[in-house]
Each structure stands twice: as C-alpha cells, then as structure tokens.
Design goal:
The chain is mainly alpha-helical.
Length: 165
C-alpha cells in the first residue's frame, strides 16, 4: 500500500483495518472510495479479493482474481486466488486448467501443488492428486501439509494416504 498516494493510501489502510477487525462490509465501503487507478493496485486487488472471499461472493471474487492475473501475473497469489475461486464456483476443471500451466513459474510455492492435489482429487484422479500432494510435502514441513490435508474436505478420498505421510 506504500505506493499509493493520499487519500487512496488512507482508504486502503482503512479497508485493511476493517477487514482485520472482521468487518468486511466496512472494508468494502472503504475500497469503494478508492480512485480507479488505486483500485487496480495489486495489493488493493488482493485485499478486495480477500474481502469478497470472506463474504463468499465468488462471482465478484472471480472478476477481481481475473484482474489480479492480468495486473500481477508474477505473483503466485493471483493464480491461486483465481483457481480457488473457480473451484468454489464448482468449476474445478477450470481451476485445474488455470493453475496447472503456471505451476512451473512458482517452484517454491507449496500452495500451488497443494491446490492442484485438491483439484485432481475432486476430479477423481487420485494418483495425480497424491503426486501433487507429495510435491507440496517436499516444499513445506510434512507435518504442516499433513495437518491441512487431514481436515481438507477436498482431499477426503486421500485420507488413508495422508494419514500415512
């Protein structure tokens, strides 16, 4: 948010504060006060997506995530949010096809292989799901991935495999 000028910086910080306080409606009201230019800033788009996700407004979140991939294609969060939003909209195959091609661009991000494991699992390809989950485990402490995977409903078909990790 440092790159924004007053009053946009003030509004963006207010939105972030409202969001952190658990007040997404107030955060959204602050975001609406931003200039058109500031609203396209990658950090502002990220916050806007998080507010919409908390509200489970996946239709609008998809538009924001699409803008994120256009304005900040070098940020893994842009692609993660876009694919996750598609998945939440019950468009898991699209989520897979959005995230898979960018995975090699972010070899150190463990969320990408983890999410690909979730999508493969939901698409019924358990072998591919295991392979992606194994990649996530190689990037992040096994205990962290295992704890997430054991409670993730998307990975329920892999529960016996996860328990043995």
């Amino acid at each position: 948010m440092d790159a924004l000028n007053y009053p946009d910086r003030h509004q963006a910080l207010a939105a972030e504060g409202w969001f952190e306080l658990g007040c997404p409606e107030e955060a959204m009201a602050a975001l609406r006060q931003l200039s058109a230019e500031a609203a396209q800033h990658p950090e502002v788009l990220e916050l806007h997506w998080r507010v919409l996700a908390r509200q489970r407004n996946w239709t609008e979140a998809l538009e924001i995530a699409r803008r994120m991939t256009e304005t900040a294609p070098d940020r893994p969060e842009s692609w993660i949010h876009r694919s996750f939003t598609l998945h939440e909209l019950q468009r898991t195959f699209e989520a897979w096809t959005v995230l898979l091609p960018v995975a090699p661009r972010f070899p150190k991000d463990s969320i990408i292989p983890y999410n690909l494991a979730c999508y493969a699992c939901q698409l019924g390809d358990l072998k591919v799901a295991r392979d992606w989950l194994d990649r996530a485990v190689r990037m992040r402490p096994k205990d962290e991935i295992k704890a997430m995977a054991l409670t993730d409903p998307d990975l329920a078909p892999l529960r016996p495999y996860v328990e043995q990790l």
